[in-house]
């Protein structure tokens, strides 16, 4: 047992070895107190898209700290919040014209759900007070979010009795590049749930194209398009949780762009500040926003996290976006994707390995899915010996690198991921 008072996330504190102590970082690497440097294949839970110690982000933070670290957004505003709201409207799919800030992805999703339900009440449909989510979804760890995560495998089944009940459609199964016909079964399954329950459904929530924490399930743009059409048909709002997929992770700025779809509400977080501070944005269309406009003060959106629109977070998010656009990050992501495909997806030996179920990649994301979680036991230590930080979960050994990861570093990561399966002891 460790003597530290620090309680770690998702950790069995009795048996887990002590957490490694990080003292700094540079580029795609972080440094431990013993001087060991590890190449971060996860960019710190998918948010440190510029890597560690990016000089422009640090300067922006320092400069902002000199003028204004924080002020409430209730009745007040400031330039970084105004500018970031405008920038997000500019870069997100056309029609998302209103921005509500909060402090984390989970809270951003709570805001989205509350907005959807209140929207339905204010347009005279109070019976539409439940949500529709997908199996394998992950939308966060707060209570409202837990209730829309996969109820069987989503880490929260323990709380089933405590959580409100929503509806779930089957997880889409057709892969990203499936032809249209191959997606019809998934679409039909979604339609059936809407047909049966639309009268009580306020919104359909989805992680477009990439169900991330639910096992890196990469799905088809046709499914996303069909979801838009079905939501219109059944008078249900469409909410995209782009907390993980936003800011380039799927190869486009937002996953919605692959399908050319505008959701009614969209949530951004992880990559928003380049990972340098916790923050989130919930965007809404004029249609949603309009339902809150009234002479009645009771129709206002009654939500306001203390730290929403924090000036430091907004300022570093603006700088993150500027670097992203000026330094052709989408080009860098395409380069990383080509390496991930060549080194993992096209590797016959890896794909045919008896322990391996599937190997797939989308944008700057790749995963080796194994048949049995046991065959990943020990992989984290193996990777560390080769200078790489991997953090697999369940049956998924994945990488979501920082976009500044160099081609050589990317190959170092894929070599370690493959290397685990060519070491004879791990043949499944
Ligand atoms: C990480 C994540 C969240 C939760 O974000 P937090 O900042 O951890 O609260 C929500 N949705 C998706 C898709 C995520 O990947």
UniProtKB/TrEMBL annotation:
SUPFAM superfamilies, per database record: PLP-dependent transferases (SSF53383)
Domain of life where this protein originates: Bacteria
Alphabetized, the UniProt keywords read: Aminotransferase, Biotin biosynthesis, Cytoplasm, Pyridoxal phosphate, S-adenosyl-L-methionine, Transferase
Site, Participates in the substrate recognition with KAPA and in a stacking interaction with the adenine ring of SAM: residue positions: 10
Q: According to the UniProt entry, which residues carry N6-(pyridoxal phosphate)lysine?
A: 270
Output the Pfam families linked to this UniProt entry. Aminotran_3
PROSITE patterns linked to this entry: AA_TRANSFER_CLASS_3
What cofactors does the UniProt entry give for this protein? pyridoxal 5'-phosphate
Q: Where does substrate bind?
A: 45, 138, 270, 304, 391
Q: What does this protein do?
A: Catalyzes the transfer of the alpha-amino group from S-adenosyl-L-methionine (SAM) to 7-keto-8-aminopelargonic acid (KAPA) to form 7,8-diaminopelargonic acid (DAPA). It is the only aminotransferase known to utilize SAM as an amino donor.
Q: What is this protein called?
A: Adenosylmethionine-8-amino-7-oxononanoate aminotransferase
């Amino acid at each position: 047992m460790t003597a530290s008072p620090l309680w770690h996330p998702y950790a069995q504190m009795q048996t887990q070895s002590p957490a490694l102590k990080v003292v700094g970082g540079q580029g795609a690497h972080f440094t431990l107190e013993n001087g060991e440097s590890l190449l971060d294949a996860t960019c710190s839970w998918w948010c440190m898209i510029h890597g560690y110690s990016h000089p422009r982000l640090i300067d922006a933070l320092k400069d902002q700290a000199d003028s204004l670290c924080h002020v409430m957004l209730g009745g007040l505003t400031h330039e970084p919040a105004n500018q970031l709201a405008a920038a997000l409207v500019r870069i997100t799919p056309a029609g998302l014209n209103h921005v509500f800030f909060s402090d984390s992805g989970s809270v951003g999703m709570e805001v989205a759900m509350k907005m959807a339900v209140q929207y339905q009440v204010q347009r005279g449909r109070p019976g539409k007070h439940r949500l529709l989510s997908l199996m394998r979804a992950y939308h966060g760890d707060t209570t409202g979010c837990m209730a829309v995560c996969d109820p069987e495998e989503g880490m929260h089944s323990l709380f089933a009795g405590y959580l409100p009940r929503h509806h779930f459609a089957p997880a889409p199964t057709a892969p990203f590049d499936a032809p249209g016909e191959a997606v019809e079964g998934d679409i039909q399954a979604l339609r059936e749930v809407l047909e049966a329950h639309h009268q009580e459904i306020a919104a359909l929530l989805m992680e477009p194209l990439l169900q991330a924490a639910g096992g890196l399930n990469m799905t088809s743009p046709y499914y996303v398009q069909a979801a838009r059409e079905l939501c219109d048909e059944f008078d249900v709002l469409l909410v995209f949780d782009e907390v993980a997929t936003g800011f380039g992770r799927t190869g486009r700025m937002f996953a919605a762009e692959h399908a050319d779809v505008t959701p009614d509400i969209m949530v951004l977080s992880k990559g928003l500040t380049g990972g340098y501070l916790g923050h989130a944005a919930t965007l809404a269309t004029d249609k949603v926003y309009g339902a809150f406009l009234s002479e009645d003060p009771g129709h206002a959106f009654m939500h306001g996290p203390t730290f929403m629109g924090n000036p430091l977070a907004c300022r570093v998010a603006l700088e993150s976006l500027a670097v992203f656009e000026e330094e052709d990050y989408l080009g860098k992501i395409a380069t990383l994707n080509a390496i991930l495909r060549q080194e993992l997806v096209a590797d016959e030996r890896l794909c045919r390995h008896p322990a391996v179920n599937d190997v797939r990649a989308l944008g700057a994301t790749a995963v080796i899915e194994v048949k049995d979680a046991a065959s990943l036991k020990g992989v984290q230590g193996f990777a560390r010996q080769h200078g790489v930080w991997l953090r697999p979960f369940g049956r998924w050994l994945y990488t979501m690198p920082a976009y500044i990861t160099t081609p050589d570093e990317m190959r170092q990561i894929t070599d370690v991921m493959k290397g685990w399966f060519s070491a004879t002891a791990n043949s499944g």
